[in-house]
Structures are given as structure tokens and as C-alpha cells.
Write a structure and sequence with these properties.
2 copies of one chain form a homodimer. The first copy, chain A, is α+β, with helices and mostly antiparallel strands. In chain A, about 35% of the residues lie in helices and about 20% in strands. Chain A is built from 14 helices and 17 strands. In chain A, strands 1-2-6-3-7-16 form a 6-stranded mixed sheet. A 4-stranded antiparallel sheet of chain A has the order 11-13-9-14, with helices on one face. In chain A, helix 2 packs antiparallel against helix 4 and helix 12 crosses helix 14. Chain A is globular and about 80 Å long. Chains A and B meet through strand 9, strand 10, helix 7, strand 11 and strand 12 of A and strand 9, strand 10, helix 7, strand 11 and strand 12 of B.
Amino acid sequence: MNEQNAVIDRFLSDHLDDYIQETMRLCAQPSVSASGQGVRQCSQLVAEMLSRRGLEVQSFETPGHPIIVARAGGASPRRLLFYNHYDVQPAEPLELWTSPPFEPEIRDGKVYARGVADDKGEFVARLAALDAVRAAHGGELPCGVTFVVEGEEEVSSPHIAPFVLEHLDLLAADGSLWEGGGVDPDDRPGQVLGFRGIIACELFVETMSRDAHSGGAHILPSAAWRLLRALAGLKDENERILIPGFYDRVLPPSQADLDLIAQQPDFEDHYRKTFGIRQFVSNRSGQELLTSVFEPTCNIQGITTGWQGPGTKTIVPAQASAKLDFRLVPDQNPEEILELLRAHLDAQGFDDVRIKAHGMMWPFKASEDDPLVRLTHSTAEEVYGMAPKPPVPLGGGSSPAYAFSGPLGNIPVVHAGVGYPHANGHAPDENIRIADFLNGARHIARLLNGFADL
Amino acid sequence: MNEQNAVIDRFLSDHLDDYIQETMRLCAQPSVSASGQGVRQCSQLVAEMLSRRGLEVQSFETPGHPIIVARAGGASPRRLLFYNHYDVQPAEPLELWTSPPFEPEIRDGKVYARGVADDKGEFVARLAALDAVRAAHGGELPCGVTFVVEGEEEVSSPHIAPFVLEHLDLLAADGSLWEGGGVDPDDRPGQVLGFRGIIACELFVETMSRDAHSGGAHILPSAAWRLLRALAGLKDENERILIPGFYDRVLPPSQADLDLIAQQPDFEDHYRKTFGIRQFVSNRSGQELLTSVFEPTCNIQGITTGWQGPGTKTIVPAQASAKLDFRLVPDQNPEEILELLRAHLDAQGFDDVRIKAHGMMWPFKASEDDPLVRLTHSTAEEVYGMAPKPPVPLGGGSSPAYAFSGPLGNIPVVHAGVGYPHANGHAPDENIRIADFLNGARHIARLLNGFADL
């Protein structure tokens, strides 16, 4: 280990408790972008945390929640962009949390809170890395840094893409560290080279002006049945999406992708245990669980119709709605798919089914040969004391990284962070391990350190 | 009009305001059987109202809500049984009410409140009729009366049938006046000779032990999709229910039924306006809207799964449930149909879909030639000043009358009451017209008066 890394590691070990406290303060501030709960207060807290470190902070209003941009110069003209988000998923169902989601608690070396893994703990780990690198460089940074911290990632980042296009000069950078790093079930770090796109949308049906007594169900049109039939026409029993043209731009995995996938650890048992799964989709197993990420999906996030209270209510529902998300693979285009969905519903006679788009992201995929990808790989090996796993060619989730990489000159996008497989992201008892926080901060500090000389 | 009827009518006119006030007091007491809200307090209020009139009142506990039985003797040994219920449907959606559902309000000659039409106003109209007949008979009743007032009609009366079987002596009667009478869109009174049966049940699916991130939708089994597929297998596009054996006991309408239906007024425009209907089920219209009541239904009361808050939540739901009701026609047997539903789901590979039965009722149908049916018809003609409409052979709703008529010796069951087509039963702004309340009480008093001599 070189001298700078020794200083960095000592600094982080000495101040670990402070950073965990800072993480817990940030998590104690709710910031549910779907409902708006606490979001603005959280954006101010984030701005203060960055400003306190001497970065020049700007808060940009959007039609939704504010985007925070914070910049600092460094010894090298090269600049690394950090993307994070300060918003979190809704905490429901509350009864499944061991401790309240917005009252962070440490148990067994883990911090429990909504958002601690996705993505507040990671954000604080980066601030810690920044502080540590400065300590190793006599207070200076080796390269410039730009933080972009948005408040709408959990609602599909509807305003980040136009924001980037409108602020290309402000956001100019030579590489980017994205959110979402960490270790696998064997505690091995790794890279994800790309992510699927997404359309988050909602379908609405209204068949009557009010609910009616179900004694008239032989004649009164049911919104529940109509929605159900519209949904049933979207996907067949074999998970094949029935929208004409949906698969036209789908690229199958390349041989390089398949080679990388073949080197991935098996997570079948992990998923079976974590989610109590008896049978995967289409009875998939083994390698197919990994390769099927190259297949786009049509997921139902939720359905709302009729009586949902206790017991029974003899009504024919007049209204029904379903929240959907489609995960898209390279080179599908979400704007085009949304038009195909509309055309399909119309063609099936469902022109009364209204579609509201909540947000969309494009799929994207980077090269495993990029120097920043390689730096991330080699520094991970030093920090974690083992060879990182082979890069994952495509992650199942979606990332607004697509909106930065292309417009900023096809800059590389890498991941390093604090996650682990039992973090329960988007679910009750979300948590991080404190040991992962420390390693994540050490790794990020090394990226900052090495980035100037790439 | 004979002298007794003149006394009755004068009494009811003189005391109309008092009875409307009594109705409003009863409606101000919530009694939502589905949630339990206020139900016990309402049962006590009903017991007091009956006791105050000198009836011998008993309150019977059930596994659900209490059943009130009140009896009084009369000059004749013949006895008329009145069935009512003191429970009401949930009041939601509250924002669609003009005035709060449990704060009764008089507007434009109508009383607005949850339950005022179904069935509290009708119950008070019967008490008024009882008082009026006594006034015309020097304080005596011409025949015995038995009130049965239950608290679970709106949750399919799960305990009334066994209760009747266990209390045949207490409930012995020569005829029965059921709930649910009133006038049609032309203000004409009428009879309904039978009702459909019902199974109210709920389907539950659990595919995982917790919700998961929808980035895994290509492999993680969705409870929403699984429920949707199970439901889609219950009914085809033409409303034909796909459960094998479901139609085996279905009796088609007789020629007498069709003759009665042919004499019914057309309600197509009324329904189109009231419910803003563009297209009826299976594009039915005209006479078919009436005859199709002889077809059983499979209705979705509500579906609950996944995220139902504002915006979007990128999850694969682990749990999903649907509340259903099947309306059954003579001679379908709900216990048998429930078994067929289970067998069908199993045969379709949905043995993991759990069924919970919330309640069931049998279909039944009386003869139009019965003397009590004829008395109801002739007294209605005098009260309303017009020929009643021809009896409806089968109502679309369900009635626990099935549980009384057979066990008590196939006693006739008739209807007389305070309803009208814009009463909004089970819906926001439920109401009765005060004029209908008066006519209903006059009609019921004449039935009491004439029943001794049938």
C-alpha cells in the first residue's frame, strides 16, 4: 500500500463513527419522492453537507424536486462527476420494519433506515472519501469533483435528462462515479457495465360515473374486469410481451456478455432464501437467471380498484388503475415503446384505457476496456483484498446514467459503494453494514486519487 | 277507503315529522358491518326502539354481530314476520358525499344518510305502521308480529341461516314482509318474487416472502400477475364463467317469468344516465337487460396488490388479493359452486391461490299466486293510486329471505317499503324521499291490517 492510501485509511478509520452519525442524521430526514414527504428539507440538508466541505453549491428547481450541483477544483484539470440521489422509496408496509424507517438504528454492526443503502449511505461515504483524500494531499484535491444529487431517482428521474442537456458546461467531466456499488454474497466487489431502461406508467379505466350495486353485475360494466382484460393482453403465459414491435430493437447478449455472465457467481439459492421463492418466473434456474436480464419485462407495480377495506362490499367498481413498469434492454427506446403500447391498446379495443407516463429512462451499456473501469477494478482488488468478480454486463435495474454519459462526451461510468445483497433496498429493514461503508469510502478515495493520472 | 285506513293515514300524517326524526337519529349511529364501526351501539338503539313500543326484545350474540328479535301478540293467532337489518355498507368514497354520511340531512324533501334507504328508513316506516295500526285498533294489534333485525346483511348474512334453524319455534310465522320495497322510476310500487344467491369470497396469492425491486422482474415471481392470470381464467370475453359445472343447475327463465319481464318498464335510459354508462355488459340493451338477470355473474368487488400511493414504486409485489362475488340463480347451490371454484383453480395450476369465503346465500323464488303476494298488490294499488307494476320474477341482488321461507314452512315473502331508483343504495348520497316514507308506512299498515283475515 502506498503512503497516501495509508493516510486515507487511517483518516477513515479514525473518523468512521462521525460518518456513521452523519449518515444517520441524513436518513432521519424523510425524502419520499413519490409522495413529496420531506423532500425539500432533505435537499437543503444535502446542500449544507456539501457547502460545509467548501464546495460551490447550487440548487436548481425542476417541475419536481430540486437538483443539487456542487463543484470543487483540484490539482489536475481532470474532473470526476459523482451522481447520487437524496430521495428514497416509500417506507410502506410500515408493520414489516423492525425499527421505524426514519429513526435510524444500529444493530449488529448494521445501520437500519429507509434510504441508508439506496442511496444516502453511499453519498456520505463519498463525502468521507473526499475528506480523506484531502487529508492525504494537504487539504487539496488531486482532481476536480462535481456532485450531482437529485431528488427524483426513485420516481424514474423525469427531469435529470433535460437538466443535463441544459447544463453541459457546468457538468463537464472526464468520468463519472455512479451510485449503486458494493459487494456480492461472497463479499466480493464488482462492476456493472450497463443498465436497463424503464417506462413507469399508469393505466386508468372508468366504465361508469360511480360504483354500483353488484346485483347489477350482469349488465353494469366493471372497470376491474376491463382493466384486467387490458392487462391480460400485454403479456402471454410465457412472459412474452404482446405489444407489436416491442422486441424490434432488442439486441441479444453478445458473446463477450455471455462470457462475463458465465463467470458470475450463482445467486439462485440466495434469492430463494431472501425472497422465499419456490418458483422463478417461467421456472427459470441456473445460468438462465443471469442471461434473462437481456429480456425486457412488463411488471405490475400495483393495482387499485374497488373495495379494499376489511370484509366485503357488494359493488361493481367504476374505476380501476394499474401502475406498470417496463424494463427495456439495449437498444429499445422508451418513447417509442410508449407509443407502441398506446397503439396496441387501441388495436385491442381498449382506446378508453388512459395511459399516464410517470417517467422513463433509456438503456445503456459501457465497455469493460475503459481505463476508469480498469482503475475501479484494480483499486477494488487492493481495498477488498481479493480479485473483484468479473463485470456484470447489464444490471436489471435502471439508471439515469444514460442521461449523462452520452451528452457529456461518452464519458465512462463506474460504480463503487456500500451495498450488499441483504441491504433490502426498496423494502422493509433496509440497511448497510458499517464494514461495507468503510471499504466503500476507501475504494472511492482511491478512485479520486488515481483519476488525475489516467 | 275504509274507516280504519282513514285513521291510519291521519295518524301517519300527523306524526310524520317525528318518524323522520327517529329515522335520522338511527342513521346518525354508524353501523358498518364490514369494519365493525358502531355496530353494537346500533343494535342497542334498535332494541330500545322496539322495546319502547312494548315488544318483547331479545338480543342474540353470533360469531359476528348481534341479531335482535322482538315479538308482540295480536287479536288473531296469525303472525307476520318482519325482516330488517341495522347494518350498512361502508360509506367510502367519502369525498363524493354532499353531506357527511353519518350526519343525516334533509334537502329538497329527501333525507340523506348512509343506510337511510338500505335499510334504516324502511325499519322505522314499519315501526310507524305498527303504531298507526294500533291507533286504529284501540291499542291492539290485529295479528302477531315478529321483528328480526340483523347486523350482517351487508356482509352476506353469514349467521342468519343457522340462527333461523336453531330458533324455529321463536320465529314461527305465517308470512313475511322482507326489506327492499318501494317504487320504480314512474313512482309505481311493485313486487320482487325472488332473489339471486351469492358467494362473497376473496382470493389470496403470495409468491414471495416480501416485495422485491422490479429490476428483478425477469426472474422474480409477481403476485400481481399470478392473481391476474387466475382471475382471467374465471370468465371469458363473453361473460361466460369458465368453472366446469358452474351452469349445471341453472334454470332458464320460465315462460311465466318471461311474460312478467315483458311487462316491466324499460330502465335502459335510467341506468345510462344514473351511472353514465356508454356500453352495458356484452353490449346488452332493451329486453336483454331484464332477462339477463337469470344469468349468474362473477364480479370483482376490488383488487389489492402492490403500491397504491401516489406516483410510482419500482417493486414486484409479493402479495395480491381480489374480493369477488358470484350472483347465483335458481337452483345453483353456493356451497357446491365454492367447491367447483376450488377444483377449477387447482386444475388450472393455481393450487397456491387461497380462497376465503366471506359469506353465501342461496337463490330463491316465490309464486305470484300466493294470497299475501296478492294482498300486497291490491293494498299497493289503493295507497299509491295506481296499478302496481307486474311482479319482477327475480331481483339481481341477494336476500337472506331464503333462510326463513323454507325452514318456516315455505311461508310467503313479500316486499313493501320506502325505496326509489335514485336512492343510491351502497353509494354516496344515499337517500329516501319523505313522500315515499309516508306511502311505505301506509302500505305496510294495510298489510298488517289485512293479514289477520287472509
